[in-house]
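Q: Sequence in, structure out?
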Amino acid sequence: MFVDRFIAVSAELTGFSAEELRATGMAGDYRAVVLDRAGAERLGRLEAAAAGGSAELLREPVRELARAVAHLWYLGTWPGLSDGEPFVVSSRAYAEGLVWRTFHGHAPGTVAQGHGSWSAAPAFGAARDADAVSAEQW
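A: Exactly. Output:
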């Protein structure tokens, strides 16, 4: 139940659906980080503000926490609030960051490119090599 409320607020803040956020498997971990770093009272104010409409989210100190939660989902890092230090939540959080989904990519070093993919020249490099050969022939 509590995680569902956190996911609903997070969906509003990130623009991703609740199902997409749940599919990352990070909702429980992220909620725990927010509770640890911001406290239950502050999270409750964020949830109440989100239920009251987006105008409520623009007011401090709710806005600072709203930004931190969005940052957490997109980058897998806690940005730190005015009274804390930033940190990477986990390697999994980095890999599940929403930033990679915005351009249908994957975090570097987290997904195998396929057997033997290293042996073929990148398409961009191959085109440049072909241009160089053509220029030499002239």
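The radius of gyration is 21 Å.
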